[in-house]
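Q: Two folds, back to back.
A: First:
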Amino acid sequence: QVQLVESGGGLVQPGASLRLSCALSGLAFSAYTMGWFRRAPGKEREFVARISRDGANTYYGDSVKGRFTISRNNAKNTVSLQMNMLQPADTAVYYCAVGSTLEGKMATWSNPNFYGSWGQGTQVTVSS
């Protein structure tokens, strides 16, 4: 059974940093690309970041580029999202998701339909 468990969310002030982690079990972690998405209240799910199977290639949504960094540890079956310079607009529930065993086309990297299993999400709230 595939299980993803996110952690690290919380309430922070604007300009602060947070680091989210996602632990995966039930799959050969290193064989899959991984992604982070978020959903803010009243909004559609938004792509945040994606990382290749070996961690060498990363891809970000425009709204987080330059502030967020995705990384993975294949020895520990974890993927992380370092979030810096957080803004109120970053307030959302953040989800990690299992991608593909193939690198695929770039057009699919931000499409949630190309991701399989999802975690339960972790709340990030940015407020003064």
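A: Second:
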Amino acid sequence: QVQLVESGGGLVQAGGSLRLSCAASGRTFSNYRMGWFRQAPGKEREFVAAISSSGGSTYYADSVKDRFTISRDNAKNTVYLQMNSLKPEDTAIYYCAADRWKYLSTYADSRYYDYWGQGTQVTVSS
């Protein structure tokens, strides 16, 4: 079992930045690929970014590429999402998730993530 707790969400103006954190406890954090997903009102949950268990590989949705950066600190059992140049369409609840399967082709598929945090709200005003 892995417990995940997100923090760092809030209200920011368009063009601003936020840094989300996700603290993990329980099983060995470094065994899991970690991902960030988001869900806007009335929309399905969508993939944002993922990072391999070692941190050596990162993956991004096209909509956030070059604006968001995912990173992790395995010594602190924490994964981060640095969000720059935020847009109103980035408004959503952001969730971190842990994936024990780590198949090469499934980093964006929420069905392969076993553990989820409670989410943190990000609101970007225009």
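Q: And?
A: The chain has no helices and eleven strands.
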